Amino acid sequence: MLRDELGWEIEPQNIALTNGSQSAFFYLFNLFAGRRADGTTRKVLFPLTPEYIGYADAGLEEDLFVATRPNIELLPEGQFKYHVDFEHLQVTEETGMICVSRPTNPTGNVITDEELIKLDALANQHGVPLVIDNAYGVPFPGIIFSDARPLWNPNIVLCMSLSKLGLPGSRCGIIIANEKSSPPSAT
């Protein structure tokens, strides 16, 4: 479906199944961040906060996460939208991956296509993956109410969940990634 509908160059080796999307993030956070074999540490960079609280338990190391405050756009009727503050976003030698939810849990904020493309370029420039938590996003289950195009390329690790498709007992997370960066399937 993803290859035919979206034109993504993916094969079976680009897909890993996990015991739910929460397990997928445990694998990814500890694959790309934390203490390395040479003694250095890498961090998960969240370009927006607030972010999904469930990530807090997904690391093996303390002090695994860093985040950047967003730019907040005030909208009519007490509404707001927050955006990546690219001016203050710092990708350093300690950055092991950039991670964003699309939409963000708990606020439902949907990062724009332009912001996602800029984050992908920034991740590529620094040689780290852009990990997108797509549990509610596009192309499925599509539980968002703003314009958003699905994005994947070999530097993006895209995570999806079957539970949001009405199958919560299935405990099936889906990771779409470059074969070299895809963690081994847990099923």
TrEMBL record:
Superkingdom of source: Bacteria
Key word Secreted present: no
SUPFAM superfamilies hit by this protein: PLP-dependent transferases (SSF53383)
A GO MF term: L-aspartate:2-oxoglutarate aminotransferase activity
CDD domains per record: AAT_like
Annotated GO CC locations: cytosol
GO biological processes: alpha-amino acid metabolic process
Signal peptide: none
Protein EC: 2.6.1.1
Cofactor(s) it depends on: pyridoxal 5'-phosphate
Class of the enzyme per the UniProt entry, highest EC level: transferase
Pfam families xref list: Aminotran_1_2 (PF00155)
Protein's UniProt name: Valine-pyruvate aminotransferase
Organism listed in the record: Klebsiella pneumoniae
Source species taxonomy: Bacteria, Pseudomonadati, Pseudomonadota, Gammaproteobacteria, Enterobacterales
